[in-house]
Amino acid sequence: MSKKTVLRDKIKEQLLFQIHQGDLAIGKTINLAALSRETGISVTPIREALSQLEQVGAICAVPNRGFMVPKLSKKEVHELIATLSQLEVMALEQSNLEAMDLDELAHLQQQMTLTGEIRERLQLRFKFHDCLTQNCNNSVLVQLINDLRLRLRFYEYQLVNELVFFEKMDQQTHAIVHALLDDNLPTASLILKMHWLYVEEYLNGQL
């Protein structure tokens, strides 16, 4: 992993933390000086990392203001999630999940049901999706998925603020795991699509 990638990931995680803590709201300018203090990274490489995040659409540059996490319309939510849903299904269908992968999915799904902390559950949720597609050998497809997931994380950390979000999700992820354990890929893919429809419905209700 390159130094630039490590730096971008560190800045990304700090921004996600700020959003979850309420220190950074969607539509508000990112405070570079605060990011520098919190991460111990100087402002110049932070700007470079933010420019990388801008390239994948996670944030945007605003003339004379710096960077911000842009607001989303319901149309944009639909397009983002519809695209991610289709790509994830494609990646899942191109993945060769081994017994170890299925065990990891089952473990992550169980962890999600046991914790009552929203931020931790969101982290486990994205780990679950990473695990679903980790064996896809189409590197272009995987990169597109990772970029879209990154964009979505910024909004889920801001908009998901109640545990009810996870109730139906727990049922869906449980059903996905069991379908894969039964070697029933069509059913797993169908539930995955339904899962993303639910996420879209919830996020739209928060906008």
Task: Provide the fold topology.
Blueprint: H1 3-21, H2 32-39, H3 43-55, E1 60-62, E2 66-68, H4 74-93, H5 99-114, H6 118-133, H7 139-159, H8 165-181, H9 185-206
Antiparallel strand pairs: 1-2
Helix pairs in contact: 1-3, 1-7, 4-7, 4-9, 5-6, 5-8, 6-7, 8-9
Q: Given the C-alpha coordinates, what overall shape results?
A: globular
Helix/strand/pairing category: mainly alpha
Helical content, roughly?
Answer: over 70%
Mean residue pLDDT: 88
The helix tally amounts to 9
Q: What separation lies between the terminal Cα atoms?
A: 36 Å
- How much of the sequence is in beta strands? under 5%
Report the CATH architecture of the largest domain: Up-down Bundle
Radius of gyration: 17 Å
Query: How does the major sheet shape up?
Result: 2 strands, antiparallel
CATH topology of the largest domain: Four Helix Bundle (Hemerythrin (Met), subunit A)
How many domains in all?
2
The helix-strand sequence is HHHEEHHHHHH
In CATH's first tier, which class of the largest domain applies?
Mainly Alpha
Beta strand count: 2
* Spatial strand sequence of the major β-sheet: 1-2
In CATH, what is the homologous superfamily of the largest domain?
Answer: GntR ligand-binding domain-like
Spans where pLDDT lies below 50 across 5 or more residues? none
